[in-house]
Design goal:
The structure is a single chain. With 418 residues, the chain is an alpha+beta fold. The protein has two domains: 1-33, no CATH class; 124-418, no CATH class. It contains 14 helices and six strands. It has helices at residues 41-63, 73-102, 106-122, 142-155, 188-193, 196-211, 214-235, 246-293, 295-321, 328-337, 341-352, 365-373, 388-395, 397-417, and strands spanning 3-7, 14-18, 135-136, 162-166, 171-176, 181-187. It has a four-stranded mixed β-sheet. A two-stranded antiparallel ribbon has the order 1-2. Strand 1 and strand 2 form a beta hairpin. The longest helix has 48 residues, at 246-293. The chain is globular and about 85 Å long. The chain starts with a strand and ends with a helix. The structure holds zinc ion (2 copies). Residues 205, 209, 282, 285 line the site of one zinc ion (ZN).
């Protein structure tokens, strides 16, 4: 790799520029991009309130590590609001049952049918494992599931029922269907970017959401959020209807508009409370990941999450442009290994400059890393066995091929469109 030295345009310090990577100054921050502009008025005030909340939560978590999720005000409020929403649905059904049971007046029967229709629309949807693509069961990937089972046992959660592989650069844990099947969503590009022990940390973080009751929270509150969103869309007034009398149409639209605004406000409120509870849950999941895989591995896993995605996207594009159809995963590993330290540092610093926002599901990654780096070094509770990583890779060989092909085809499609 060729390296040239130029003075920093801002502070004059000598800067080494590496071929293929942007030049930046570690001393004064030149080249990291401009700060996001301050927004004005109400939005500006929301931004400032937002970053104060994020910083306060960080300070709280950094000082006194919460060991259990705890029923803080945000979590209680978020559950209460969600249960209120589901109670409304239940009340509609109860009303209809009462009317039909006694066969009341025709008007009431019409109302009851209407109530049932609305209740049907509002009923919580749980999804279904059968409708998900690329579901892998225990028998499909024994080596992977063996590791998942050890992680689950160590954290005291039930083993997962299925893994859904994907081309995403992330991972998630959730329950699906009325039978609440536990599913791990595993993006292979992220998985392959992590070292063995960082993989343990990733699993630890995701499974911790199961241990902390975040998944149950997700079911009750998540279904309430989607119910509110559907109701909001249903109530929004459409364009004026010519077939109706002007006054009747106007009245209908005013009532609809008012109802839609009320539902919309509840939806925003539920979002805000939930996200606050959610950000705290992320810190807690990080702490459990640190206990399982070591603080070093947990922090490294988050750094890879920030640093490696660019490398992955560039590698996919380069691969597609070169017309290569095999060996993507070797290329990705090679590109990651060749990433200079200064470029890693640059990407971490760029991500740390983003605005702190309370309305994101996760706290800013650099704050999560800071919390983990402040923990005393500790031995991992679970170590991957020497050949385990490779056995998992071999067991998933068909999936690696499938995802690489999909990445390749998607990249080609984008290149041709662009
Ligand atoms: Zn400088
Ligand atoms: Zn999480």
């Amino acid at each position: 790799m060729t390296q040239t030295i130029t003075p920093c345009p801002s502070c004059g310090a000598p800067l080494a520029s590496l071929e293929g990577h942007p030049v930046w100054c570690p001393g004064c921050g030149w080249g990291l991009g401009a700060d996001e502009p301050q927004r004005r008025g109400l939005r500006g005030r929301f931004d400032r309130w937002s970053s104060r909340r994020v910083e306060a939560l960080y300070a709280e978590v950094a000082q006194s590590p919460a060991e259990r999720p705890g029923w803080d005000a945000a979590r209680v409020a978020s559950y209460a609001l969600a249960l209120g929403v589901h109670l409304c649905t239940a009340a509609l059904v109860a009303f209809a049952v009462w009317v039909f049971a006694a066969m009341r007046t025709p008007v009431l029967i019409v109302l009851a049918v209407l109530a049932l229709l609305v209740a049907w629309l509002l009923l919580p949807r749980f999804g279904s494992l059968r409708k998900l693509p690329d579901v892998r069961r225990r028998a499909d990937a024994p080596a992977l599931f063996a590791l998942l089972d050890r992680v689950a046992a160590e954290l005291g959660v039930k083993p997962v029922d299925a893994v859904v592989v994907s081309e995403d650069f992330n991972a998630a844990y959730g329950t699906v269907g009325l039978r609440r099947r536990r599913v791990l969503f595993l993006g292979l590009p992220l998985w392959e970017s992590l070292t063995a022990q960082q993989k343990v940390a990733l699993l630890g973080h995701e499974f911790a959401h199961g241990a902390n009751g975040d998944a149950a929270h997700g079911v009750v509150v998540g279904t309430s959020l989607s119910t509110l969103a559907r109701l909001h869309a249903l109530l929004r007034p459409g364009p004026p209807d010519d077939r109706l009398n002007y006054l009747i149409d106007l009245c209908l639209r005013v009532v609809q508009g008012a109802a839609s605004t009320v539902v919309g406000s509840v939806l925003v409120l539920q979002h805000m409370i939930t996200l606050r509870a959610g950000q705290r849950a992320e810190y807690l999941a990080d702490r459990l990941a640190a206990r399982l895989a070591s603080p070093e591995a947990a922090a490294g896993m988050l750094e890879t999450l920030v640093v490696a995605e660019d490398t992955h996207l560039t590698a996919v594009q380069r691969h597609a442009l070169a017309g290569r159809t095999a060996g993507y995963w070797d290329d990705l590993r090679g590109a990651l290994a060749a990433l200079p330290d200064s470029e890693r540092e640059r990407r971490l610093r760029v991500s740390a400059r983003r605005r702190l926002r309370v309305d994101r599901s996760h706290p800013p990654t650099h704050l999560r890393i800071a919390v983990l780096r402040a923990l005393p070094a500790a031995d991992p509770a679970l170590l991957m066995k020497p050949d385990e990583e490779q056995r998992i890779r071999t067991g998933l060989a068909a999936d690696y091929d499938l995802i690489a092909r999909r990445l390749h085809d998607d990249a080609l499609e984008r290149l041709h469109m662009g």
